[in-house]
Write a structure and sequence with these properties.
By secondary structure, this protein is an alpha/beta fold. It has a single domain, classed as Spore Coat Polysaccharide Biosynthesis Protein SpsA, Chain A (Alpha-Beta Complex). It has seven helices and ten strands. The strands form two sheets. Strands 1, 4, 5, 6, 7, 8, 9 and 10 form an eight-stranded mixed β-sheet that branches. Strand 2 (23-24) and strand 3 (27-28) form a beta hairpin. The chain is globular. The N and C termini lie far apart (34 Å).
């Protein structure tokens, strides 16, 4: 079973508004993230924290979604990574921040074909998300302190770098300027 873990627990401070609920082409940002991984994931875990009620309202009625509340979301993103991983049941899982709405479904498919237990996509020399893990990595990640950094764990492992033709792996919404860039990118992609 292939699963997806989407991190959506943060405060969205730099954006000044709750990012998962931002409307991109009439649909909440988090829904774009969910929909792009849905073709390859049998189960998708969304980790929430700040403004959990709004996130729950966006996700309600979707039987393939598991919503996890990270009680320690205030301590940072790594605590959300750990919360999400505790819910993983499959042999592999994708991990992505919930503010990356334009990753191509084809990128997920390509990553699943790549050899190795930890796959990182790269576009034009720059690494991005999602990251594909074998579940054999879960104990190591859960053994790290809550204020850890996932990048430190990844750098300590044997990683397969996969070159992809997808600028979306590096496009996230840190602020509203980034959101405007993503809106422009989706307009270019729509005929």
């Amino acid at each position: 079973m292939i699963e997806g873990v989407i991190l959506a627990a943060g405060f969205s401070q730099r954006a000044g508004t709750f990012k998962p609920a931002l409307l991109l082409n009439g649909k909440p940002l988090i829904r774009h993230c969910i929909d792009s991984m849905r073709p390859v994931c049998e189960r998708i875990i969304v980790v929430g924290g700040y403004d959990f009620e709004t996130l729950r309202d966006i996700c309600v009625g979707d039987p393939e979604l598991v919503l996890v509340f990270n009680e320690k979301f205030e301590s940072g993103m790594f605590s959300s990574v750990q919360s999400g991983l505790r819910a993983v049941k499959g042999e592999k899982f994708f991990l992505i921040p919930g503010d990356q709405p334009v990753v191509k479904p084809e990128t997920y498919r390509q990553m699943l074909k790549a050899p190795g237990t930890l796959i990182v996509p790269r576009y034009k020399g720059k690494k991005g998300h999602p990251v594909l893990f074998s579940s054999s990595h879960i104990p190591g990640i859960l053994s790290m302190p809550e204020d850890g950094i996932l990048r430190d764990y990844i750098h300590s492992q044997k990683v397969t770098i996969l070159d992809v033709d997808d600028p979306g792996i590096g496009m996230d919404v840190d602020n509203l300027h980034d959101f405007d860039k993503i809106k422009a990118y989706t307009r270019e992609k729509t005929p």
